[in-house]
TrEMBL record, chain A:
Topology of this chain in the membrane: Multi-pass membrane protein
Sequence intervals crossing the membrane: 36-56
Cited InterPro entries: ATPase_V0-cplx_e1/e2_su
Organismal lineage: Eukaryota, Viridiplantae, Streptophyta, Embryophyta, Tracheophyta
Signal peptide (UniProt feature, chain positions): 1-20
Chief location bin: membrane
Name of the molecule in the record: ATPase, V0 complex, subunit e1/e2
Compartmental location: Endomembrane system
GO molecular-function terms, A-Z: proton-transporting ATPase activity, rotational mechanism
Signal recorded as keyword: yes
Length: 70, 818
């Protein structure tokens, strides 16, 4: 599960969410654009958070040092 | 104003287009027109009679009538509360009634109720006094005889002493002696009830005032007695005071009155006593039945009122508001029509016209009401059509400042980024699930709670239920990423990437593990929890994450300012504000973000603090160990140069260009529409007044304004970026608290292997989690996420100096007064 693959998965999930919102509540073009914006923003935020945490662990400079008595 | 763009406009991004409209209404249909517009709720009336005081306005008498009726209704509501009728059980619909009939009926009911109350009070008082009298009769009889005999013996001794003294003092005449003797034979008594806590003082003062010449006997009553004056139950004592002489009697009476002791006459004749007791008992039962009948009548009247109360209340409120609104309209020259001016959304035009037509037909008026659109330079109110979910988020944005008419609404992005930033600070999916359950309970019971009256705190929590549920969903997500379930990590997404260096694991506690597999695919590796190097790793991760998220949100803010400038066709703002701002922010903090990402991708050991600081201090120096990519030094010099150029770019050209624009306009050279003027400038000079025409252009003011704006941005870019570090700080605090509660409470209690200690430990853990983490941390993270939005995000583009559209609407009035 590389970085690119999971990013692709996020994009796919985002698109599916957009489609679902379009199917469930289709209330005219302006409302649709609004819902699209919300879903896209949410997907981007979630992806950013995951990507930051993933990238930080890819080439670690600090390694876990277990504490005594583990 | 703005050209139609190829993309459709987005809901809620900008205020609905509003128009200033004038209604000309014939007087006979005025009341109906206002009533129908109130039901529609889409027209905000302007007060055309600002100069007049409330008493000079046309409908002042009507409003006074409504106020009187409201007062009577409040009186009825108090009576209903006294009768114990709960407000939630009152029905809201009843029979139709007109305002005049209602007024008359309310008047009658009020008079009736006041009379009934006064009567019942009198009867109750008489009843209580009789009760006391009966007590006195019973108790006093018991003490009377032994007390009397003792008193008469004392009296005789006293007489004896007096007589002896008179022999020694030949100055006293015999007449006086006999007169004294005859006076002193008469032994009077006063009986009554006094409050128990005052009885000691009562006794003392009696003694002092009469110089010991009284005999007091007190007997306490077992149960508390209802005091006739105050109506409360107090502990009382029955007392009998035996006194001699008229002076002593008057003193005793005055003292009794001072102490509020009720006096009741008591005969020493036993036959009469018995008669009195039977008489009093008879009177008591009579009074009781009368009082009961009265109460029954009262409660039936109050219940009848209760059935109609809500309907009357709503009606009176509606009428009062209609007359207030009518007061805002002005009479036209012919005195036959009322003129109304106000704001309404453009899309509501047809609805308003239909309402006007309906009112004309219903009131059988000859002339119809006229609706015409006016053009004005005034800034319209801002109106967002929100549904119940977006309403809460819009309220959060409006609390800082209502959007100026048609500027971009940050609420669109706040709806997602606010719960997201909250979740970054709150990340724990166990706590997230608790919040989710709480808020979904509120949402499921929505219908029930929205009609009830809740306490202040519950009301806030209920109003924010959709915000809280979004926050909880994002918290579950970030909790999975931080891998914390009440601070316990789980291995849901595969195996941990770290393992011992060799099979004996000798170095695990000194040098540590090494990364043997691929990175843990989703979130923080579960091996980190409890290790010694957990904090250095997580701190580094979270600080860098805060910077990245912060730079992203600030860039979004600046891009929103671009969209604003484009919408208002303000080229000046685009080239001399948006572009240099983007360049400045990104050449410094965008570059920092880039360095962070490159460092993570390459695993270099460069010290980023060193790189950034020496980029400013000695940009020409060689980077040596801190080199992250080829050509870094030259890139840094270029970025530094761009940042330095951006500052005067923001500061200097704009005032000069504004001055040129202003001169061109007033020479009649180029006709430029007003809205290309800097919006800030227009606000300063116009101040929402109807004026227009020739504004003063003061170059020095504009220059100073631009200077302040530039300094604010430049210095703010550093402080705002640092401010985002609170995402790290709160997230660290949350995880540490959560970890402490888990290890030091729950695990400790588990370690004792005793079920009582375990139960205590679980209870303490639950209370600590709910009190500290679920309530305090939620509020804390909410507040900080709010601050990040209001200051760091919105100061990049938001003016927020508009005013909100408050239409005349019956539903809003009901909410107001409740």
């Amino acid at each position: 599960m590389g970085f690119m693959l999971t990013t692709l998965i996020f994009i796919v999930i985002g698109m599916i969410a957009c489609l679902c919102t379009r199917i469930c509540c289709n209330k005219g073009p302006s409302a649709n654009l609004f819902h699209l914006t919300l879903v896209t923003t949410a997907t981007v935020c979630c992806w950013m958070m995951w990507a930051i945490v993933y990238l930080a662990q890819m080439n670690p400079l600090i390694v876990p040092i277990l504490s005594e008595g583990e | 104003m703005a050209e139609r763009e190829c993309l459709p406009t987005m809901d809620l991004l900008r205020s609905e287009p509003m128009q200033l409209a004038r209604l000309i209404i014939p007087v006979e249909s005025a009341h109906r027109v206002i009533s129908y517009l109130g039901e529609l709720g889409l027209f905000q009336f302007k007060d055309l009679n600002m100069e007049k005081s409330p008493f000079q306005r046309t409908y002042a008498t009507q409003i006074k009538r409504c106020r009187e009726m409201a007062r009577k209704l409040r009186f009825f509501r108090d009576q209903m509360y006294k009768a114990g009728l709960l407000s939630s059980t009152w029905p809201t619909h009843g029979s139709e009634i007109s305002l005049d009939e209602l007024e008359v009926k309310l008047g009658e009911l009020e008079v009736e109720l006041i009379e009934m109350n006064a009567n019942s009070e009198k009867l109750q008082r008489a009843y209580n006094e009789l009760l006391e009298y009966r007590l006195v009769l019973k108790k006093a009889g018991e003490v009377f005889y032994p007390a009397q005999t003792r008193a008469t013996t004392q009296q005789r001794e006293h007489e004896h002493h007096r007589v002896e003294r008179s022999i020694d003092s030949p100055l006293l005449l015999e007449q006086e002696i006999t007169a004294d003797l005859s006076k002193q034979v008469k032994l009077g008594y006063v009986s009554g009830l006094v409050q128990r806590d005052k009885s000691m003082a009562f006794e003392r003062i009696l003694f002092r005032a009469t110089r010991g010449n009284v005999y007091l006997k007190q007997e306490s009553v077992e149960e508390p007695v209802v005091d006739p004056v105050s109506g409360d139950k107090v502990e009382k004592n029955v007392f009998i005071v035996f006194h001699a002489g008229e002076r002593a009697k008057s003193k005793v009476l005055k003292i009794c009155d001072a102490f509020g002791a009720n006096r009741y006459h008591f005969t020493d004749d036993t036959g009469k006593q018995y008669q009195m007791i039977t008489e009093v008992t008879g009177k008591l039962s009579e009074l009781k039945t009368t009082i009961d009948v009265g109460k029954h009548h009262w409660s039936s009247v109050v219940q009848a009122i209760g059935l109609q109360f809500e309907q009357w209340n709503t009606m009176v409120k509606k009428e009062k508001s209609i007359y207030h609104t009518l007061d805002m309209l002005s009479f036209d020259v012919t005195k036959k029509c009322l003129v109304a001016e106000g704001w309404c959304p453009v899309h509501a035009t047809s609805q308003i016209q239909k309402a006007l037509l309906r009112a004309t037909i219903d009131s059988n008026s000859q002339v119809g009401a006229i609706f015409e659109v006016l053009h004005s330079k005034e800034s319209p109110p801002t109106y967002f059509c929100t549904n119940k979910i977006m309403n809460a988020f819009q309220e959060i944005v409006n609390a800082y400042g209502v959007a100026k008419y048609q500027e971009a609404n940050p609420g669109v992005y706040t709806a997602v980024t606010f719960p997201f930033l909250f979740a970054v600070m709150f990340g724990d999916w166990g706590h997230g699930i608790c919040l989710f359950l709480a808020s979904s309970f509120l949402i499921l019971k929505e219908k029930k709670y929205s009609t009830q009256k809740l306490g202040d705190i519950m009301e806030m929590a209920f109003g924010g239920r959709y915000v809280i549920i979004m926050m909880s969903i994002f918290s579950i997500y970030t909790g999975l990423i931080y891998n914390e379930f009440f601070s316990v990590p789980f291995e849901f997404f595969g195996r941990s990437a770290y393992a011992c260096r060799d099979s004996s694991c000798r170095d695990a506690t000194t040098i540590g593990l090494i990364k043997v597999r691929n990175t843990y695919p989703f979130g923080v590796d579960p091996v980190w929890h409890g290790t010694r190097s957990e904090l250095p790793f997580l701190n580094s991760l979270k600080m860098k994450m805060s910077i990245l998220l912060g730079v992203a949100q600030m860039n979004l803010g600046i891009i929103m300012s671009y969209f604003n400038a484009k919408f208002f066709q303000n080229d000046l703002d685009i080239w001399y504000q948006f572009v240099p701002q983007m360049i400045f922010l990104n050449s410094l903090f965008g570059y920092l973000s880039l360095l962070i990402i490159v460092k993570w991708c390459t695993g270099s050991q460069a010290d980023l603090y060193h790189v950034m600081i020496y980029m400013f201090l000695s940009p020409m120096d060689d980077l040596a160990d801190n080199q992250l990519f080829v050509g870094q030094k030259y890139l840094q010099i270029l970025l530094l140069f761009l940042a330095l150029v951006a500052v005067p770019w923001m500061l200097i050209p704009k005032p000069f260009l504004l001055k040129k624009q202003h001169e061109e306009r007033h020479q009649g050279g180029a006709y430029e529409p007003l809205h290309t003027l800097d919006e800030n400038l227009e606000q300063q000079l116009n101040n929402r007044s109807r004026g227009g025409g020739h504004e003063e252009f003061q170059f020095s003011e504009v220059l100073v304004h631009q200077l302040i704006h530039t300094i604010e941005f430049v210095l703010g870019s550093v402080s705002n970026t640092a401010s985002y570090l609170r995402l790290w700080a709160l997230s660290l605090a949350h995880s540490e608290l959560s970890s402490v509660f888990f290890e030091k409470v729950l695990l400790l209690a588990w370690g004792y292997n005793n079920s009582v200690i375990l139960a205590i430990g679980v209870v303490v853990f639950i209370f600590a989690t709910v009190g500290v983490l679920l309530v305090m941390e939620t509020l804390s993270a909410f507040l900080h996420a709010l601050r990040l939005h209001w200051v760091e995000f919105q100061n990049k583009f938001y003016q927020g100096d508009g005013y909100i559209f408050l239409p005349f609407s019956f539903s809003l009035i009901n909410d107001d007064e409740e």
